[in-house]
Design brief:
The protein is of the alpha+beta class and 527 residues long. The protein folds into 3 domains: 237 residues, ATPase, nucleotide binding domain (Nucleotidyltransferase, domain 5); 107 residues, no CATH class; 128 residues, ATPase, nucleotide binding domain (Nucleotidyltransferase, domain 5), CATH 3.30.420. 38% of the residues lie in helices and 20% in strands. The chain is built from 17 helices and 23 strands. The strands form 7 sheets. Strands 17-18-16-15-21-22-23 form a 7-stranded mixed sheet, with helices on both faces. A 6-stranded mixed sheet has the order 3-2-1-5-14-13, sandwiched between helices. A two-stranded antiparallel sheet has the order 4-7. β10 and β11 form a beta hairpin. α9 packs across α15 and α10 packs across α11. The radius of gyration is 23 Å and the shape is globular. The N and C termini lie far apart (59 Å).
């Protein structure tokens, strides 16, 4: 039988998926293994045993094989993972401590700022706070200050993608398009930074600790006999470098042109476009590597994103949770009914969804806000307003992208968990005033990884052909232009001014309470 299918291992935050796609982009078979996103030994921490991901990958593969899937049809394995999760190991790749998951909020404050001429330049161009935030958020600095015994043993400093690439191939290697995190990485060159780059001194990472980088579409290596036995696959199967899960989502949604915006409605909500030139949506905040070699994803992020749906459900959605359990339904399906119980615009209730601070926009002082309360408002209004606030933030990101690139966004694609709800997608279409296309599969991250591998193995001659062959639109949700007119005024006259007007109050809150903390605030290590 011809080997014309790709196995995509999609290592997410809440589940691990083993997905097989054919050359036409059809999901032939798939299996999912739910995982605990993280454990929190202390408030704000997010850690996980790195081996959990490997065991979950093995279990997902076992579940896939149990369906009767023919493994002889596989041409390659493609790996995509959650971004920014750090694993430190010894020289043999054995973890020295739990992985620090990307949701972790610990910071190392009180570090010496960048000095000398470089520090002066940073102050002159107004990015000293951004650099200080990078320094405080870098996992390497936290380990160095708080766990010196672990720091002394580190011989490899890896992202989860690099750790799993080692488990698969026996090599310390990773995709250049997976390097999203607090690392000495040069986003212009898709390579480790030059020796004089400020990130080396800020991170304190030894260059010898970092993996070899391979461009997306390159070969990470071949599956070892040990890994093959664990996953139930033949040794020697090619393992193809792809990209982080968000970059693969963009590609899997078919957003290959800069005029197509890719919305990801996941734990972190993002707006992305694919660019063939280097451009920053926010000055001095680099674009991320695309799953397409030599291209970038210009990304604007709402960090907490659709985590806010989980937050609402946990804090205020007890009736919906109880109903869902009684009716054997997903709680999110019951929540959708709340959307219809409040009118577009939520009778003026407006949410600024900055539940976590940012770097430059929003800044490190940012906080969430809900304004416009009256005695008419119910939980339904609050829930709808949260979704509207997320949509406003994504639209704001799209408009900033348009201003920076000079390219108008003429089409939208949607992925992520929130994309499963027509009510949510329809609301976002109304805010943008543009149709939103829903791809033929919700597994767009796995599909994006499969597209890269399909080109690497010769199933398609190039990425453009692969995207035309493997992606397609299932449904298109059109905006209601009358509703859009209401949203447009609320967005421009209420939402857009909110941050500027509330920012002084956010600064005062931070000064008085110390929350959210800044690099300039002094705490004992590990506090």
């Amino acid at each position: 039988m011809t080997a014309d299918r790709i196995l995509a291992l999609d290592i997410g935050t809440q589940s691990v998926r083993a997905l097989s796609f054919d050359a036409g982009g059809t999901l032939v078979a798939g299996a999912k293994m739910p995982i605990e996103p993280y454990v929190a030994p202390r408030p704000g921490w997010a850690e996980q045993d790195p081996e959990l991901y490997w065991r979950a990958a093995a279990e997902a593969c076992a579940r896939l094989w149990a369906t009767g899937f023919d493994r002889s049809t596989l041409a390659a394995l493609a790996l995509t993972t959650q971004r920014g999760t750090v694993v430190v190991t010894d020289a043999d790749g054995r973890p020295l401590r739990p992985a620090i998951v990307w949701l972790d909020q610990r910071r190392t404050v009180g570090l010496e700022p960048v000095g000398g001429a470089t520090g002066l330049v940073f102050r002159l161009i107004g990015v000293a706070d951004t650099v200080a935030a990078f320094q405080a958020d870098a996992e390497s600095n936290w380990i160095r200050v708080n766990e010196p015994d672990v720091w002394a043993q580190i011989r490899r400093f890896l992202l989860l993608s690099g750790y799993l690439a080692r488990r698969l191939t026996g090599r310390f290697v990773d995709s250049a398009a997976a390097q999203v995190g607090y690392l000495p990485f040069d986003f212009r060159r898709f390579a480790w930074a030059g020796r004089g780059d400020w990130k080396w001194s800020v991170c304190g990472i030894d260059p010898a600790w970092l993996p070899e980088l391979v461009p997306p579409g390159g070969l990470l290596g071949e599956l070892t006999a040990e890994a093959g036995a664990t996953l139930g696959l033949p040794a020697g199967l090619p393992v193809v470098a792809t990209a982080g899960d968000k970059a693969c989502e963009v590609l899997g949604a078919g957003a290959l042109e800069p005029s197509i915006g890719a919305l990801s409605l996941g734990t972190t909500a993002t707006f992305n476009t694919t660019q063939r030139r280097y451009v920053e949506a926010v000055p001095y905040v680099p674009p991320y590597p695309s799953a397409v070699a030599g291209a970038w994803n210009l990304e604007v992020m709402v960090f907490r994103g659709f985590w806010m749906v989980d937050w609402f459900l946990r804090e205020f959605g007890h009736p919906e949770s109880a109903r869902a359990a009684a009716e054997t339904r997903l709680a999110e399906e019951v929540l959708d009914e709340l959307i219809a119980q409040a009118p577009p615009g939520s009778m003026g209730l407006t949410v600024q969804p900055y539940w976590s601070p940012g770097l430059r926009f929003p800044g490190p002082e940012a906080k969430g806000a809900i304004i416009g309360f009256g005695d008419v408002h119910t939980r339904a209004h609050v829930y709808r307003a949260i979704l509207e606030g997320l949509a406003y933030a994504l639209r704001d990101g799209a408009e900033r992208t348009e201003r920076r690139t000079g390219t108008a966004i003429s089409a939208l694609r949607v992925s992520g968990g929130g994309a499963r709800s027509p009510a949510v997608v329809g609301l976002i279409a109304d805010v943008f005033g543009l149709p939103i296309a829903v791809p033929h599969t919700h597994e767009t991250s796995g599909l994006g990884a499969a597209i890269v591998a399909a080109v690497a193995t010769g199933l398609h001659p190039d990425v453009e052909t692969a995207v035309r062959s493997m992606t397609r639109i299932d449904t298109v949700i059109e905006p209601d232009q009358a509703v859009h007119a209401t949203y447009d005024r609320l967005y421009r006259e209420v939402y857009r001014p909110m941050y500027g007007r509330l920012r002084p109050l956010y600064e005062a809150i931070r000064s008085i309470t110390g929350y959210p903390a800044t690099p300039a605030m002094r705490e004992p290590p590990g506090a």
